[in-house]
Amino acid sequence: MTAERVQRLTDTFRLIRSKDAGPFLLTTDLFCHDAATLRRVLDAGVVTPATFGDLYGVDPASVEVHVVESIHAIKVSFPRPVPSGELADDDITGGQTYGPLVTLLAASSLGDGRTP
Amino acid sequence: MRYVALTGSLGCGFREESLAAGVAAGPAFIGSDSGSTDGGPYYLGSGDWIWADAAYERDLRLGLAGARRAGVPLIIGSCGGGGGDDAVTGYLDLVERIARGEGWRLRVACVFCEPDRAVMKAKLLDGLLLPLPGAPAIESATFDADGHIVAMAGAEQIEWALATGADVVLVGRCADAAIYAAMPLAAGFEPASVWNAAKIAECGAAAAENRSGQDSLLVTLDDDGFVLEPLDPALRCTPASVAAHTLYEVSDPYRLVMPSGVLDSSAATYTALDDRRVRVTGGTWTPAERYTVKLEGSAPLGFLSGFWGTVRDPMLLLQLPQWCAAVEDRLRSRLKEVASGDFQVQLRTFGGRDVEAVLVVDVVGQTQEDASAMARAAYHVALHWPIVGWSGGSVTTFAHPYSAPVVDRGPVYRFTLNHAMVLEGDEPETLFRTTVEEVG
User: Fold this and answer.
1) Do residues B304 and B245 share a domain?
2) Domains held by chain B: number
3) B42 to chain A nearest CA, in Å?
4) pLDDT 10s digit of each residue in chain A, 116 long?
């Protein structure tokens, strides 16, 4: 993954973040700049239950995708593969769960940045 | 009706000037959330408070002084972080100490939220414990474990505590929004607006677009909506920042499930009144058919000792998973030789194969002494475990910065419950114990 592709994601996204939603769920938020960039993300077809199922090792049927049109955002929530604080947990607050997601998005067409 | 949300987490601070501005605005009450499961199962399990005593005392002293100046109640929810009974008692002691020091006389209502374990066991048998998403499997023995099990109070229990004429209401585990919904609901404000406002207020001024740390928020409820205003004049709430905040650390951006019903804020609209105040209208509230409270539990797992170091040998970096598995395998027999009781051992590495990886080794034993003895034995095994490819002499496998390397981490816990418990009859009152006393 080139640094450029990661940095070009800011053409599309204002903020990508993750957090715990209680001890047993994780949630990721993808904030786009405007309606057009939100549309581009949705059309790219990468923000799907299947993608998150693969990326985080969870059942795609348990992944919820909420599109919040009013603020050009997508929220994706799913059960934690390892509950908060278990011996095998390495991210109690879930605050860095979004890392692999950024890598995946940068490798997708969204890493091309602003399209003409 | 106006109210002040002091801070998103008691003990994390707020500006004294912000509180003064809030008091000057004539609030009906001042509230603060104090709880969270974000930091993991330790706080509920142990009963220890998240922040330092002095941090809580600072925020409580100022909050109490502000509430007295305004002549209104101070409502604190989820005492200590986990919201167990001991934390409520601990906050009561803190309030009493502050009141004595200041020469105040305060009427304090405490709401205790650790239900009778026998009642919860009976609910399990009666099928009245409903698993929430991601809930662990439970059995009757789940309710015999040490640690704490709390039921999240709603607005009702806080309303009843306020009805005792309390100057201060200290609540064990409660829904964050309930702190800010109790008094407006009692005053007859429309539930959808009340809960939508409360959901945003529970994080204090975090809904501001240019937040820099914790601070206070002023909420003004009117006939069909509410206005949000940060009490720091440098902070601005905008329609976008408020809407964005409603996504923060919740799995569903629109639905807020409370004991008495469900808020759906998908139809809410956010309008700028000026460059730092936002008015919100819309949303629907659907009363629940059955009153349910969420259960949270945390039980001891044992005591942890561990150490960490850095692997820099490219030969070892090429075989890390296999090497870790081999060390773990050896430790499962070796550790029994230096301590007794059940134990768990785990080797993990963080970081890439390119330059270096951090090795973290954890041992959980039944006592701290056992865990420590085993971690020290594990250190020596791991430090010199063979690396495939090198031969003819002993190796040293990781660098570590500290002498002595083993750290005793104390007791560790695990979350045991994520269930909605159905209450019947007068259980919403009787399951939560409320006491009232005069202090100072």
Assistant:
1) no
2) 2
3) 8
4) 689 999 999 999 999 999 999 999 999 999 999 999 999 999 999 999 999 999 999 999 999 999 999 999 999 999 999 999 999 999 999 999 999 999 999 999 999 988 64
